[in-house]
Design a protein that fits this description.
Blueprint lengths: L12 E5 L4 H12 L3 E6 L2 H9 L7 E4 L5 H15 L4 E4 L14 H29 L2 E6 L11 H21 L4 E8 L5 H4 L3 H8 L10 H11 L11 E4 L11
Parallel strand pairs: 1-2, 1-4, 2-3, 4-5, 5-6, 6-7
Helix pairs in contact: 1-8, 3-4, 4-5
This protein binds nicotinamide-adenine-dinucleotide.
């Protein structure tokens, strides 16, 4: 697919968590292609370095950061703000799954899933908001999931992703008068390593429920993110955008 890329992110500093693969990588590449200086974080240093080497333009950086650690998240974000003088966009993308029926979810797997998606989004947003407020401009985009409405065998992930929706809506109210918007994307089935890690039959069964009858590509998410985080999305806050081929519409009798 070819895009008519613009330079709408020229001079902007964009932060992305979990940028070393999957949706994060596609967003890092898209923001860079639209002129941003992208600073991204991930646990996976080797994959992060590869993504960094692939980017258009200059001024990008990768840091190995565990966003579940509030001090590490704050040190990363304050460091970028000190070096670059601004943070325009924060994308809270990092997330993990530890799927199981409730009787088989350990407390470690419960905590781990909430720690990355929900608490990680909180730690990074709290740190970034301090800098965005000062300049009266910011875009915070967090990652929910089609699962936020409920999904079998995922109560930890459902809770985390519904939590991201609540967090986004609450924070949108606090950010609004400071020029900071907060939105979420709820992806459906998008071709990434996370989706590939789901077992075969479950994967086929799910794809059959997508009204468009196919999975999405990371670039589909990146295109939506590039709009929601842009200056022109200035009057949009507190929304959850389904990017899912229609699966979030609900049940179908066919
Ligand atoms: N792929 C899908 O179909 C889909 C559907 C719905 C929601 N999502 C959500 O979209 C986001 C991205 O998903 P993906 O499919 O690209 O996942 P992915 O597993 O392919 O990539 C996630 C990245 O996050 C990083 N990460 C994990 N824990 C981290 C931590 N503590 N600190 C920093 N980085 C960390 C991983 O190393 C990895 O590079 C997630 O929040 C996921 O829940 C994905």
């Amino acid at each position: 697919m070819s895009y008519g890329f613009t330079d709408r992110y020229a001079d902007q500093i964009v932060l992305v968590t979990g940028g070393a693969q999957g949706l994060g990588r596609a967003m890092v590449q898209r923001f860079a292609a639209e002129g941003a200086r992208v600073h991204f974080a991930d646990l996976n240093a080797a994959a992060g370095a590869e993504v960094l080497a692939s980017l258009d333009g200059d001024g990008h950086a990768f840091d190995q950061v565990d966003i579940t650690d509030p001090t590490a998240a704050r040190t990363w974000i304050d460091g970028v703000a000190a070096d670059q003088g601004r943070i325009d966009v924060l994308v809270n993308n990092a997330g993990i799954i530890r799927d199981n029926r409730i009787e088989n979810i350990s407390s470690e797997d419960w905590d781990a899933v909430l720690a990355v998606s929900l608490s990680g989004s909180f730690h990074c947003t709290q740190a970034a908001f301090a800098h965005m407020r000062e300049r009266r401009y910011g875009r915070v985009l967090s990652f929910s999931s089609m699962s936020w409405r409920g999904n079998f065998g995922q109560v930890n992930y459902v809770a985390a992703k519904a939590g991201v929706v609540g967090f986004t809506r609450g924070f949108a109210l606090e950010g609004a008068k400071h020029g900071v918007t907060a939105n979420a994307i709820a992806p459906g089935l998008i071709e990434t390593p996370m989706l590939a890690s789901m077992n075969g039959p479950a994967h086929e069964k799910l794809v059959g429920k997508v009204p468009m009858r196919h999975t999405g590509q990371p670039e589909d998410i990146a295109a939506a993110a590039a709009f929601l985080c842009s200056p022109e999305a200035r009057y949009i806050t507190g929304v959850v955008l389904d990017v899912d081929g229609g699966i979030g519409i609900g049940s179908s009798i066919r």
